[in-house]
Amino acid sequence: AQKVTQAQTEISVVEKEDVTLDCVYETRDTTYYLFWYKQPPSGELVFLIRRNSFDEQNEISGRYSWNFQKSTSSFNFTITASQVVDSAVYFCALSEAKAGNMLTFGGGTRLMVKP
Amino acid sequence: GAGVSQSPSNKVTEKGKDVELRCDPISGHTALYWYRQSLGQGLEFLIYFQGNSAPDKSGLPSDRFSAERTGGSVSTLTIQRTQQEDSAVYLCASSLALGAGGNTIYFGEGSWLTVV
Questions:
Q1: Cβ <8 Å between B101 and A101
Q2: Which label site among A9, B24, B100, B105 has the fewest CB atoms less than 10 Å from its CB?
Q3: What is the SS3 assignment for A9?
Q4: Best to test chain A binding among B41, B53, B107, B109 (most A CBs inside 10 Å)
Q5: pLDDT tens by residue, B5-50
């Protein structure tokens, strides 16, 4: 069965620091997809990125970057030069091709960026 | 708007009453999902609709929970005889359903349910 683990339940940093949110997953499927979502205090889950299991190329989008390593079953998320507006709960999620679009979420990491 | 729309945004109900939560997915999305997020907890899958196929109800926690989707669009999640442990945010989401999966799922802002 699939499983997503976000070991860091809460992280606190000072503005402008870099921060990495860890995500480790388990799956028996060879084709799968990994996601990151942001949940600000308003409650809505905001889609950040999707990765398929055949594409290990790291991605950078502005201050956000993602490091996908199949060898360690990890899909870590780094925020460079953090800002107060980055404060939110971040969820990593997995879907297996054979399970359609079903998402299995990690427990989330609460990031607090202090000014 | 163009996103997933949910109503009500907040609902306070007395224990034992029935509640209905509504979800209007993104236009053109054939897949619709309900998730639940209890206070301080992660996201728990409840039910999944895909087109005209029978829904995947494997996540519904008890027979007090049911959902329907009319006309392949709007969905209603019904909780009968509500209990205090039903208090949570109920999140609806939708996606295209192309290929073997991996389509991005877009979430609404949720319906905050409080059972007193």
A1: yes
A2: A9
A3: coil
A4: B107
A5: 999 999 999 999 999 999 999 998 989 999 999 876 789 999 999 8
| A96 close to B101: Cβ distance less than 8 angstroms | yes
**Nearest 5°: phi and psi at A70?**
-65, -30
Contact between residue A44 and residue B109 where contact means Cβ atoms under 8 Å apart: yes
Where do the DSSP E strands lie in chain A? 3-5, 10-14, 19-21, 24-26, 32-39, 46-52, 59-61, 64-69, 74-79, 88-96, 104-105, 109-114
Q: Compare all CA atoms of chain B with the CA of A35 and give the residue at the minimum distance.
A: B104
Q: Which tens digit of pLDDT belongs to each residue from B48-68? A: 998 888 888 889 999 999 999
Cis before A40 (ω within 30): no
Cβ atoms of A85 and A25 closer than 8 Å: no
Q: How far is B16 from chain A (nearest CA, A)?
A: 26
